[in-house]
Amino acid sequence: MPGKPLQGWFTGVWDRVCAKVNKAVVFLDGPSAEVLHWCGGAARLFKAGAVNVKEFSSFESAKDDQPKAVFVLSSVLKGQAMTVIRDIITASQFQYCVVVCSVNHYTHQTVHGAQESESREVFDQFEEKMCEWMGNMNYTAEVLYEPVSFAPICPGLFTTPAYSSMFPLTPSDMDSIRQMRIARGEAVGDDSMKIDFSHLSTDLQIWIKMLVSNLSSLFEGLNVREDCYAVGPFSRVIASELANLNSAKNRRKTAANKASILFVDRSLDMVGPCGHQTDSLADKVITLLPRLQGHTVDVSINMTSLLSKGAQLYPQLICPGTLSHADSASQALLNSFVTLKQKECLMDVNRHLVEVATQEKLLVSLPTKPGRLGAQQLEGHLKLFREPDSTRAFVQHAGVLQLAMAAVQTLNHPLYPHTEELLGLEKTLMQNAGDQDCPTALHQLTQLLQEREESKDRGGRTRRQRCSLEDVLALLVFVYSLLGEEHVGTAEEEGRLRDYLVNPSDEEELKETIIHAILSQATLSPELQSLVGENTTEDRIRSVINDVFIKLKGLGRARTGLQQFGSVFTPGSVTQVASYRPLVRQLMEQIFHPDKPDVPDVEHLSSGLTDLLKSGFRMFMSVSKPRPSDHPLLMVYVVGGVTCQEVRLIREAVAAAKTETEVVVGSTRLLKPSDVVHQVLCQNNLFPDLGL
């Protein structure tokens, strides 16, 4: 299954949207706008005849001489979305309205409590409402389904912005579900790590249905029948919903190709995303540079240093640079950011700059002696495009220049040395794990917090804090996910690890230190505000921190029940240092192992009676179990976010296996450490707000 059809399908969805936008004002919600950003941008709509592109907001409207509107939405046509559409229509003079929605009519039927069928009744009723809002039932209204949900970042990697805040339920969330079911008088089983779709909140059920219907549309576009696999309890729910999706049954009967999709719970391994043990320049760019407003992947790159002195006086008027560009050179360079190690990526950035400068006949100064390639040399090349006679070259190669500037600004970022310091702390925590002569992880983090109190040196200057409170929260997620309730070696080793992590006295001391640190802050950072809220009384903060540790302990139990992937940590010994073993790499190595060993933690979800019968026959016959590697295409979808480092590790493991199976990585978003803290400790994953 070649990759080009997949990339073509992602952008082809927008061809059908563009066919509707001629002479229209286009309104896009946030996730749809982000997807369009990676599929050609607003220029694509203008080229198709759109007269304006606006934010999907009740405060927007069209001019009186603009009679046509197209709304591109990623949400259900109910509640908040319906209110905004009504507000925009009633404030304008439209005679023709088109809604392109990435939620199909089957899911809308579920939202409205109707039986799933081929009927478009829900869409037809919404078309009538739009005619009412336009003030004339003879005007034209259309509601169409198009899965504008997939943002192709680079070949073999996509995200789904509409589900960027979706995160797997952790054991503490599952404990809450059990308590709610017990309170309702329901019978609960002994397996606390098992959840069913029916146990979830209504909004979470709808959200999952939205995701699986989009994925089903993707497989329909590729003309494939998919086998569904899962690692983790939340992924199992999603995979089961996709496997048993009624609307996909006819498609699977006639599909010419086969593929596998493997869902993986992000909560099983939070070490990589919240740590700094990455050799990926893309991860460092995403971590250090500010996110492009309203986006979950792309960043804002300051390009004023390459502009005229007049432009530099008003930087707020200059549009930021981005990572997403349509030209092939920029896309190839972005692929290097994602798939290469930092040193190799910087060499590729340098090569691209030298090539475009030579092509434009600019005077390139090459170093006389070979040395380490850094920001200074790249900056020297970039300055060539700042000259007045280099304007055409700047415009011609703007994409490559923006990516190169992203690399330079990342390497020169004032917090770049701090990330190296945090890496050292993470390594120290790992090396000390299980060593009885070393203080516990929580004791070490308590000391870090105590050291961060501002003090004056002899010169009267404020000493830089070694570690912020936000850093400590990320380190807490790091150690609980790394060590958790592991099964590593002997019972004595396991006991030492558990004592190392959860010494009660150390936990209470750390709680009190965190509470004091929050109370002592004059103003809270956005991260801490999302954690604590507006009420910053001591009782409120104490309650929040107690809840934080409940969530952390739940995260530490996330791999409970896994037989093969119960640990991501290799303890140190006399002959080797302690190390982190990413779950995704372990998964790929076992799935593509030449001996095809059993992988008990990878569960195959049957899609019907035929598959169940096949599974039954395998119990009595020497027939191998289905594996994700059985088909030409394997899609690995990480629920809760993925890092570029993990994408590279997956590709390296697949390349080492010398398999003919193509592996595509998808996820809800690309992660940085602050995202992890928010997803695990701040947001309510049990009850997402879909605005219904």
From TrEMBL:
<protein>
    <submittedName>
        <fullName>Sec1 family domain-containing protein 2-like isoform X1</fullName>
    </submittedName>
</protein>
<dbReference type="Pfam" id="PF00995">
    <property type="entry name" value="Sec1"/>
</dbReference>
<comment type="similarity">
    <text>Belongs to the STXBP/unc-18/SEC1 family.</text>
</comment>
<dbReference type="InterPro" id="IPR027482">
    <property type="entry name" value="Sec1-like_dom2"/>
</dbReference>
<dbReference type="InterPro" id="IPR036045">
    <property type="entry name" value="Sec1-like_sf"/>
</dbReference>
<dbReference type="GO" id="GO:0016192">
    <property type="term" value="P:vesicle-mediated transport"/>
</dbReference>
<dbReference type="InterPro" id="IPR001619">
    <property type="entry name" value="Sec1-like"/>
</dbReference>
